[in-house]
């Protein structure tokens, strides 16, 4: 019997276990119905292709199981806004023991624990329960989305009757997703190749736009540590299978389910691909699938780990962040990007925002460049939609969608319901145009860090030129001789339709200057490719001159005396509401009303301060401090994107106490559900922000033209911060202690490194060098012991 195999197994075969070191585990003890939805988000498993929430296999009154496949969007009839569609509940498993249903609410729980194993990328569950007749049983199992083979999902459950023998019935479902309000589900469809033959269960679904999604499964049963076969009856029905087996007290029965997922986005014949893939897996033991997955995670962690000695909470938060960032991305698919809640929940409909490029991308750039490249290629493939949006609004070049799904068209909803029930018009789809400069910024950062010329020449340059072209057509000349950008919204969404948002204007200016620098670089280093690209885009000297003039004339709102940047024209005239008594992280537009907030200086999230972070090198040191001290008290952190950037900046400015408090605030957004909305999925941008707060903030990492620099400020209690970054094919290992920095290089060639004010040095492959703090911001190199 292949699919429902009954095999003899040595006892050790069933002895898989979570990582021994508890510092790698996120543990949820017991079961709190009210927290179930947020736990499902936090405990999601994903591999960037398919993601599944951490729901209970047998369900509960408040379970909302959902699986999402990257790039599979659909619309409900009557709603034009596409949403990431909910796929089948592939892990559904209901059982009964001698007629008594196995469910949390129908048994006495003696112990229940869910564990997210951040190191191995595995969701574990342990449950010891007693049914009303006194039968005690133990369930112990795992679930993962394979990082080694992205089309594969695995669930494994061990069942041990502790004090009884009897008859167990198992209902193994593979049902179309249940219809629930607030989400879009895939629809069942007839298989193109007729009903699935053979041992596999197969479910064919389709989006209303015609994309096919196939889930195919094989189920296996084994008895641990015994040569005896488990007695088994099987019945196949429309939505699954029913198994009956007689279980013996003290023995452990292992049920494995291997699911393969394909869509017509990936291959022309997904049903066939799924069948063939399952066929290939037929001879592969589930433990081999587990081992390959664990190995793939180990390889990824080798580059991604950020270790903090002396602060367990920070360590756990960083591991949790990196876990979800690794799980969110797929380097093998350059036609999808990461939604605001990744593949862990339905909030924001799976849409892609600037969150990806500005908050998450640096993690990939410095720990897994192929993933960063794939994410940027998504923006390259969606360039036609960005050009169409610009054209529709009467501009040239490329204006990216504020919210993007599969095609890159603008999918921002036009209305939203506020928590108080009010219907609000959403203007960000028209006005948050800074996204075009944000994407150009990310392309340039990737290029700086990787020197991936193939990407630059075939995709990146076009993005930078087309976004620059947009800005040159977007500005309006003013009577003051300056160029202005009017009717705009910056990152601070509390202020709509403003003129000259400093973030937007300065990033647009940066975008134009970057395009000019790039044109010169291409002309010098790749003249033939430059001529070809310029010819194809119709770029000529006159247009470059126009970009230069526009960049020079753009109004940026900087006070030359103080260095203070006015967030937008007229901002200083608004009501100054004192936020010191308010709990920040609350939606101020709801608390005080949209109209009052719009007329006040309350800022939703880092806006001018976002600029200080992104263009750090361009802003004089005194102006960095002045802007931070001005805007920080006025920022309400109504967006999850905000606290981590404040942590980063406070750390860079040496205010480590404030930095640590913002770092903890950012960490708690998901881990303590501090904004109350983790049920909709983890906040992927906040998680990317946490990584940046550690690396750019506490370690003070800076990208230099020929290498990397560090100006560290560790918070009290952090004994060491260690991580590795990749830079142009080299790997730099960084270890920072309060008064010591150690840098070690690996790779084919040396790189320049600098620590604060100490002279930059060339670090040869295999070499390690050390610096010692001599004063607050002053370091000197010391001999390596
Ligand atoms: C923030 C945006 C963000 C979006 C998705 C909004 O609340 O203001 O900056 O892109 O959420 O995370």
Tell me what you see in this structure:
It contains 20 helices and 33 strands. 32% of the residues lie in helices and 24% in strands. It is α+β, with helices and mostly antiparallel strands and 785 residues long. A hairpin with a 5-residue loop joins strand 15 and strand 16. The relative contact order is 0.09. Among the domains are: 299 residues, Distorted Sandwich (Beta-galactosidase, Chain A, domain 5); 63 residues. The strands form 7 sheets. Strands 1, 2, 9, 10, 11, 12, 14, 15, 16 and 19 form a 10-stranded mixed β-sheet that branches. The structure holds beta-D-glucopyranose. Beta-D-glucopyranose (BGC) binds next to helix 5.
Which labels suit this protein?
Beta-galactosidase, Chain A, domain 5; alpha+beta; binds beta-D-glucopyranose; disordered N terminus; globular; 785 residues
Q: How are the SSEs placed, and which strands pair?
A:
Layout lengths: L7 E2 L15 E5 L6 H7 L2 E2 L3 E3 L14 E8 L8 E5 L5 E5 L2 E2 L6 E10 L4 E9 L5 E10 L6 E10 L4 E8 L13 E2 L12 E6 L5 E13 L7 E6 L2 E8 L5 E11 L6 H12 L4 H19 L1 E4 L2 H17 L25 H14 L1 H13 L1 H10 L22 E3 L5 E3 L2 H4 L2 H17 L2 H22 L1 E2 L5 E2 L17 H24 L1 H11 L3 H13 L34 H4 L2 H5 L9 H7 L6 H11 L10 H11 L3 H16 L12 H15 L2 E4 L2 E4 L9 E8 L2 E8 L2 E7 L4 E5 L5 E3 L4 E8 L2 E5 L3
Helix pairs in contact: 4-19, 4-20, 5-6, 5-9, 5-20, 6-9, 6-10, 9-10, 9-11, 10-11, 11-12, 11-13, 16-18, 18-19, 18-20, 19-20
The structure holds beta-D-glucopyranose (BGC).
């Amino acid at each position: 019997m292949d699919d429902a195999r009954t095999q003899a197994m040595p006892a050790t075969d069933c002895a898989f276990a979570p990582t021994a070191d508890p510092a790698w585990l996120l543990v949820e003890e017991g079961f709190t119905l009210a927290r179930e939805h947020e736990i499902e988000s936090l405990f999601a498993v994903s591999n960037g292709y398919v993601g599944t929430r951490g729901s209970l296999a047998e369900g509960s009154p408040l379970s909302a199981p959902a699986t999402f496949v990257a790039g599979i969007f659909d619309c409900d009839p009557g709603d034009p806004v596409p949403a990431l569609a909910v796929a089948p509940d592939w892990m559904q498993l209901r059982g009964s023991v001698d007629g008594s249903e196995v469910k949390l609410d129908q048994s006495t729980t003696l112990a229940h624990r869910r564990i997210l194993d951040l190191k191995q990328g595995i969701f574990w569950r342990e449950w010891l329960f007693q049914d009303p007749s006194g039968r005690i049983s133990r369930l112990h199992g795992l679930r993962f989305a394979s990082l080694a083979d992205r089309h594969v999902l695995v669930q494994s459950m061990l069942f041990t009757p502790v004090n009884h023998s009897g008859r167990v019935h198992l209902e193994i479902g593979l049902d179309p997703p249940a219809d629930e309000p607030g989400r879009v589900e895939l629809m069942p469809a007839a298989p193109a190749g007729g009903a699935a033959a053979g041992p596999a269960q197969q479910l064919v679904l389709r989006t209303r736009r015609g994309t096919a999604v196939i889930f195919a499964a094989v189920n296996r049963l084994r008895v641990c540590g015994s040569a005896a076969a488990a007695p088994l009856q099987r019945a196949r029905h429309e939505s699954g299978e029913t198994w009956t087996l007689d279980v013996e007290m003290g023995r452990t029965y292992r049920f494995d389910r291997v699911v393969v997922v394909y869509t017509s986005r990936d291959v022309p014949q997904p049903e066939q691909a799924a069948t063939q893939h399952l066929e290939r897996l037929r001879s592969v033991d589930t433990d081999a699938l587990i081992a390959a997955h664990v190995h793939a995670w180990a390889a990824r962690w080798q580059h991604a780990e950020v270790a903090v000695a002396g602060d367990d909470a920070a360590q756990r938060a960083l591991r949790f962040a990196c876990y979800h960032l690794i799980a969110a991305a797929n380097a093998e698919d350059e036609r999808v990007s990461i939604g605001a809640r990744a593949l862990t929940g339905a909030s924001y409909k799976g849409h892609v925002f600037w969150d990806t490029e500005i908050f998450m991308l640096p993690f990939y750039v410095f720990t897994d460049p192929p993933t960063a490249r794939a994410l940027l290629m998504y923006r390259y493939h969606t360039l036609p939609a960005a050009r169409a949006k610009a054209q529709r609004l009467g501009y040239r070049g490329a204006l990216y969608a504020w919210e993007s799904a599969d095609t890159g068209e603008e999918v921002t909803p036009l209305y939203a319901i506020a928590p108080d029930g009010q219907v609000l018009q959403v203007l960000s789809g028209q006005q948050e145009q800074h996204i075009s400069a944000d994407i150009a910024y990310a392309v340039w950062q990737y290029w700086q860090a990787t020197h991936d010329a193939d990407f630059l020449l075939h995709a990146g340059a076009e993005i930078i030129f087309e976004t620059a072209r947009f800005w040159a057509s977007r500005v309006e000349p003013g009577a003051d001789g300056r160029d202005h950008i009017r009717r705009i919204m910056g990152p601070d969404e509390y202020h709509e339709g403003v003129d000259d948002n400093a973030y937007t204007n300065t990033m647009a200016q940066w975008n134009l200057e970057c395009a000019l620098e790039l044109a010169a670089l291409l002309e010098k280093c790749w003249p033939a490719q430059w001529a070809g690209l310029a010819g194809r885009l119709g770029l000529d000297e006159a247009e470059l001159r126009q970009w230069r003039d526009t960049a020079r004339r753009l109004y940026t709102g900087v006070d030359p005396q103080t260095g203070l940047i006015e967030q937008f024209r007229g901002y200083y005239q608004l009501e100054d509401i004192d936020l010191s008594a308010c709990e920040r992280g609350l939606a101020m537009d709801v608390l005080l009303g949209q109209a009052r907030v719009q007329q006040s200086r309350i800022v939703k999230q880092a806006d001018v301060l976002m600029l200080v972070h992104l263009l750090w090198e361009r802003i004089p040191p005194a102006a960095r401090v002045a802007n931070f001290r001005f805007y920080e008290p006025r920022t309400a952190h109504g967006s999850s994107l905000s606290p981590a950037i404040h942590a980063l900046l406070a750390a860079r400015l040496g205010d480590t106490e404030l930095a640590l408090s913002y770092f903890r605030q950012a960490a708690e957004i998901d881990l303590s559900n501090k904004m109350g909305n983790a049920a909709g999925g983890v906040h992927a941008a906040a998680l990317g922000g946490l990584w940046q707060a550690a690396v750019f903030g506490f370690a003070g990492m800076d990208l230099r033209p020929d290498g990397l620099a560090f100006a560290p400020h560790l918070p009290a209690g952090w004994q060491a911060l260690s991580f590795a970054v990749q830079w142009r094919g080299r790997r730099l290992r960084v270890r920072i202690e309060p008064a010591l920095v150690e840098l070690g290089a690996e790779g084919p060639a040396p790189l320049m490194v600098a620590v604060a004010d100490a002279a930059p040095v060339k670090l040869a492959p295999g070499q390690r060098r050390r610096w010692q703090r001599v004063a607050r911001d002053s370091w000197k190199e010391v001999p390596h012991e």
